[in-house]
Structures are given as C-alpha cells and as structure tokens.
Amino acid sequence: MNEPITCVVLAAGKGTRMKSQTHKVLHKVGGRSLLDHVLAGVEPLNPEQTIIVVGSGREQIEGAIKGRQGIKTALQEPQNGTGHAVQCAQAALEISAGVTLILYGDVPFVPTDISRALVEKAGVNAGPVVLGFEAHDPGSYGRLVLDQNGALSRIVEAKDANDAELAIRLCNSGIMAVPTALLFSLLEEVKNDNSAGEYYLTDIVEIAAAREIPCTVVTALENDVMGVNSRADLASAEAAFQTKRRTDMMAKGVTLYSPETTYFQWDTEISSDVDIEPNVIFGPNVRVERDVTIRAFSHLEGCTIKKGASVGPYARLRPGADIGPGVKIGNFVEVKNAALAAGAKASHLSYIGDADVGEGANIGAGTITCNYDGYFKLLFCRLKCL
Ligand code: UD1
Ligand code: CA
C-alpha cells in the first residue's frame, strides 16, 4: 500500500474500573504496556503519523511516548464519545491523504495482518472498513447491521438497539479504517441524539451508506480484539499472551516441561534446544543461547545465558548477570552485575555480585562477592582459577 497511513489511538477514557493511579493503557502484559502492544502491532505498516487521543492522565501517556518519532498526542476534553475523540485528532494531523486506522489503546492484540487488511480494503473501496467479530456474549457491544447484499448498513449501540438488533452476534470491535479525508467529512455530520448523548464514531457508517459509499466488514477472532477494562480483563490478557508465547517458544524448539508454569516477557529471547523445567519466571531483557538447561523455580531478569550453561534449581539471575558458555549456576545462587567466564561454577548457596569470575573458576559453597558495605560501593572483584 503506497498511500500514507495515519493511526489514531483512542485512549482518553478514564478507565475507572482499573482502580489505579496508573493510566489504563500503561498497565502491562508480558512486561509491555497495552499502548506499546498496540503501537508494536502497527509498526510493520510504517504509519506516517500516529496520534494518541488523551484525556485524563495525559501526562503519563505523554511521558511514556516522549522522544518517539512520528507519535503525538491530541487532547480530548471533555470526553464526548468516540466520534468526538477522533475529531480531536484532526488538528494534530500533518497529512490528510491516505487512510486512517482507528485503534483503541486498551485493545492490545489486533494482529498486524488484520490491521493491514483493513487499511488496504479501505484504500481500494474508498469507504469505511470495520473490524467485526462473532461475540460469545454480545452484551454491550455495538451490533453490525448488514443489508440484504451483506454490506454494512449501520452500527447500532446496544443501548439504542431493538430486540431484533440485539439478537445480532456480529459485533463492533471499535477498530476501523477509513480514507482520511472521508473520515473527517463524515464526522462533521455525526450528532449526539442517542441514549448516551455522545458523538458516536460508529454513526459514520450510516452517514456513508446514505452517501452511497460502500461500507464493509473484516472479521477477527474474539481473542484478537479482546479489550482490557478491569484487573480481571488484564489477567485474561496476560493469560492469552503467555499461552501464545509458550506455543511460539515450543514451535521454535524450546522444551517446556510444564508450559503453563513458565512465564515469559515480550522481549524474552531463547534459542532452540533449551530445556526449561517447571516454574521458571523470565523478567525483562533475558537472552538464552542454545543447549542451556534452566532448572525449576529459577527467576531471571536482565541477563544473558550462553551456550551449554546450566542454571538452577532455585537460582536468581539479576540485571547484568553474564553467564558464560558451559557455566554452572546451582541451587540458591544469586548473581547480579557479574560475568562468569566459560566453564566457571557456583554450585551452591552463593551471592556473586559486581564480580568478574575467570574461566573454569570454582566458587565454593557460601561464597559472597559484592562491592557494597552498606555505605559505599567499593572495588570490583576479580576471581581467577589458579
Ligand atoms: C465502543 C463502540 C462499540 C463497540 C465497543 C467495543 C462507539 C459509539 N461504540 O463502545 O460499538 O462495540 O466500543 O469495545 O464507538 N474513548 C475516548 N474518548 C471518548 C470515549 C471513548 O478516547 O470520549 C476511548 C476509550 O478510552 C476506549 C475507546 O475509546 O479506548 C472505547 O470507548 P468505550 O467507552 O469503552 O466505548 P464503548 O461504549 O464500550
Ligand atoms: Ca468499552
């Protein structure tokens, strides 16, 4: 697709059900904020510009995106509905050609291929393309009303729907792509004469249909468009994320003895032929090379484990742990900001901090190295095998 792509991410809602000081879209799944999941999902489309519509808690979002190329915020105050939110993004646009993809900051897992399909179809049809899904429980979702030819004729909010419309299972995910100039022209006609007194983005479909502009639906799986409104939803999103990561890891040749007890982050990198025993937790920024064994109940973050090493059971690797090839880290060993060269061993009950351990060194049980005496950070330790 050669036309420029604009992404508008709606994130002005209060998210009161999270009961949190942290903005809803900055809550994390797999160690990455919901907002970053959304932005990463569309990154391969190379959007020309991305506008995040913010309201309450906007300083937090501005802080989170600071310094990122091509991403801006637009303020929506007060929050008068999804249509009004998109209108608020207009002033921040630098390009008004091409297609705009509207996303929700709290819907983190829309597959890139689906976003691409929406944008391409909107470009080809020169009309709105809405992402729909068959809801297990349609509840309060907007319903997609199709005409006899299967074209989308309007979207009705559950609050405004009659019984026949409520029986429709095809629901609105809220995500849609619309040629940019058309989008803002349609929004000018949206009114707030509905039960919520809001300007609904969804009304642009009926307005487009009245202008004889074709409106279409692309469908996704319900899981692809799962939204996060509460801590319970956050836990469901985390579970879905972990299931996917475990499946992907196994497909790449990683052995998980008990997949449901292994927790990954979005950035965990593991090579093939790595064996992971039950109850292992990966924190941020961990890289594991081939032929490594990570034994049960180990907790790893900010570390590199090189080829053929063995870690655990009950090991703790903290930021700056650099575990060399064939190294053995045994039970109840904590390593922080320390490099162990090839073949070194710390088999039992040790704290190895701020150290540089030479090739083949054997650290005896109960050894502690550290550079902090409670007041000062002291010299670096160097242990060599004689
Ligand atoms: C919206 C859709 C509904 C769809 C559902 C999917 C409309 C009118 N309805 O309903 O058809 O099934 O999403 O979840 O679009 N937001 C703002 N500013 C506002 C209002 C909302 O930025 O003034 C943002 C929220 O932060 C959120 C998203 O838009 O990310 C959706 O808002 P929400 O109030 O949850 O929409 P629903 O009423 O659930
Ligand atoms: Ca909602």
Keywords:
386 residues, alpha/beta, eleven-stranded parallel beta sheet, seven-stranded mixed beta sheet, 8 helices, elongated, binds uridine-diphosphate-N-acetylglucosamine, binds calcium ion
Stretches with pLDDT under 50, minimum 5 residues: none
The oligomeric state of the chains shown is: single chain
Q: Strand portion, in percent?
A: 25-35%
Structural class: alpha/beta
Broad shape: elongated
Record field, number of beta strands: 29
Helical stretch tally: 8
Q: In angstroms, what is the radius of gyration?
A: 26 Å
Give your account of this protein's structure.
It is a single chain. With 386 residues, this protein is of the alpha/beta class. Helices cover 20% and strands 29% of the residues. It has 8 helices and 29 strands. Strands 12, 14, 15, 17, 18, 20, 21, 23, 25, 27 and 28 form an 11-stranded parallel β-sheet that branches. A 7-stranded mixed β-sheet has the order 5-4-1-6-10-7-11, with helices on both faces. The longest helix is centred in the middle third of the chain and has 21 residues, at 231-251. The relative contact order is 0.09. The site of uridine-diphosphate-N-acetylglucosamine has 27 residues, from β1, α3 and β10. Uridine-diphosphate-N-acetylglucosamine (UD1) binds next to β1, α3 and β10.
